[in-house]
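User: I'll paste a sequence; please echo it back and then give the predicted structure.

Assistant: Echoing your sequence first, then the prediction.
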Amino acid sequence: MNTTDIIDPDAAWAAFIARDRHSDGRFVGAVLTTGIYCKPSCPARHPKRENVAFYRDPAAARAAGFRPCLRCKPDEVGRDRIAVAEAIRLIEAAEAPFNLDQLAARVGYAPHHFHRLFKRATGVTPAAYARGLMARAAADALTREGNVTEAIYEAGYSAPSRFYEHAAARLGMSPSVWQRGGAGVTIRWTVAPTSLGPLLIAATDKGLCRVAFDEDAAALAMRFPKAEIVSGGAALADLAARVVASVESPERQQDLPVDVRGTAFQEAVWQALRAIPPGETRSYAELATIAGNPRAVRAAGTACGANHVAIVIPCHRAQRSDGTMGGYAYGIDRKIALRNREGVA
């Protein structure tokens, strides 16, 4: 098998056998007996291992004499990602929101097909991506503007009612409270013992806003200086117990509510992290691609570092493309322990 055009043939074969959609676009598998190359998620029956060569892209496979599979159409993967990247550029540059038909037409796709394509690549729909940008712009404007209504219009909303409908829940607090730096928000906290050390667990009435090892109420108050910080008591007990269960048994999924905010890209990365099944990992490059910007590998790593709710958003499942683990805010030993408990080799 040709190994000059691949990074890791064993990892590529594993993705090929798993029909891993997240690996589409990272390489193609070429079948020596048929002369056809496929993307990793191709639904066709798998050939024998010794009859498959892996190439970095379709161009390399074609140069070696292979032709594209008519079933999985591997050449369209690159086109799809270019279209998603172009759609993101159009959304971010637009003065007024695109509807789906307009956006799909601009990038040359049928609306319903592009809707599925965009969501598969970014984790959110085009409309949700645009709303995320507008909500973030509103949050930024609310910190500068003296008038809430002016800030809402500056962010691109057609009317204040549209902001309240789409943005208020995402921001986790009302516009006037946001403008005052979170004053009036109540955050309940506790420090729970775990086998990996003391864990700060804090939540608003909407969900968890901070989960961190080796922090206490003083650190929480520095992070949220204008919020009311109160001891959790019974109101937080059930939620805290479920967070601790995620530490002790991370292989069991916990559907925990969160109240965290970031840029649209960061939130797309966080959503991608929450979608990783226990026991599996994703590279920073894969996370960047799922978040809609394949070149933003370093930014994907930064988004993992900006994660406010450890364990709940499982950034311990992120790693470098070469398979090494990368960093972890709470120490590499804890990252290893969490991954071992999930069964990651």
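The chain is about 45% helix and 10% strand. Strands lie at 28-31, 36-38, 52-55, 67-68, 186-192, 199-203, 208-213, 228-231, 282-283, 318-319.
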